[in-house]
């Protein structure tokens, strides 16, 4: 098809032919770099409170229920906003979601860092989850829609690596910042170390919103909307940056897609739109969004979708039952080791955390001081490091069909025994090793399942809605895991 486009420039080209002509170069590297802070922002939003809890519990007098609620409100915001964000991204576009979502999320994370009590922190973390759900799921489809068949399978490898890198940077940041004693006042407001940590965690979101200003709208989205003029302009821009040639030398001159060409209707007509026209366009986009959702509830997609969603929900609920509480567990284990406890198993740690309310003030102050020990974050760094190495080792083997076909079954089967063995482990070292291997395998499974959703959705041409429903299952499982 690509050769025919070169031989006959008047022949209309489909998306795969047009994107293949753009090649792979500087533009692709820039869009991948722009996606890194967005993917890291999701990790920071979901996990930052896990590292804050051991420090903030003393300042805010948090109970075990308060800690669970603080974890849960972030995912509650994601659950509520998941499908609406998907509709917005499929009607207005991917780029506006990435820009506005990044800036808004950064704003709410900064507001969370200014919180003076538990209620304020819960409220702003809810809005943090409500907003970040948009950019995170959009960026996966956005990346896939700028790459051809040759490079698209590696997108999920890139996403998995970025998530692993973000999971590595977060405990490193906690290791550097949280042990430092910071306390200052601005008027009647007090600011402590954990609030500075939260403020720093807003940087990836703000950076993501800034970088995506310099990128075009997804050409696949524009073609699905019938806006072939802007889609061709996006292709020409990619071609110019990758090939270092003029836009006019781009071999594809016309695009084809099942969607009728509506470029003239979508382009500006030279006069302001009336309120009736704007309402009519909004109504049309709303109906189009539901038309895109309809095929998911009919054959042949319904049975496959339900299997994927159920698998993803159960898998994420299992992994986050461990992941979200791991920083608190390690901090408590470190404190118990320092106080000379004989049993530092996970069960003992959970009992200890549940009974903190019964401690007197002096005991609480001693334990709070131990939570600021840098050693309490070393296990988290090790777990994240093992996860990153696991992704680097496993994903090159995903090119082999036998690995791709059986990795989910094998890893999930092994993880049954790994998570069960946490009950019998009695030392912090044993807990760290078992949880690291477990989380690495489950993280690879999660990325594989999302990759299946995006790949199958691309083939069905309803990719973002499929990814969004899968994302809804993802955050719902996180919510139940807390």
TrEMBL record:
Membrane-traversing stretches: 26-49, 69-89, 96-115, 121-143, 155-184, 196-215, 381-400, 407-425, 431-454
Subcellular location, record wording: Membrane
Segments forming domain Major facilitator superfamily (MFS) profile: 31-482
A Pfam family annotated for this UniProt entry: MFS_1
Sorted UniProt keywords: Membrane, Transmembrane, Transmembrane helix, Transport
UniProt biased composition (Basic and acidic residues): 247-265
Any one of the GO CC terms: membrane
Highest taxon listed in the record's lineage: Eukaryota
Lipid bilayer topology: Multi-pass membrane protein
Keyword hit for Transmembrane: yes
Positions of the UniProt region annotated as Disordered: 246-274
InterPro entries: MFS (IPR011701), MFS_dom (IPR020846), MFS_trans_sf (IPR036259)
One GO MF term attached to the UniProt entry: transmembrane transporter activity
Protein name: Uncharacterized protein, isoform D
Species assigned in the record: Drosophila yakuba
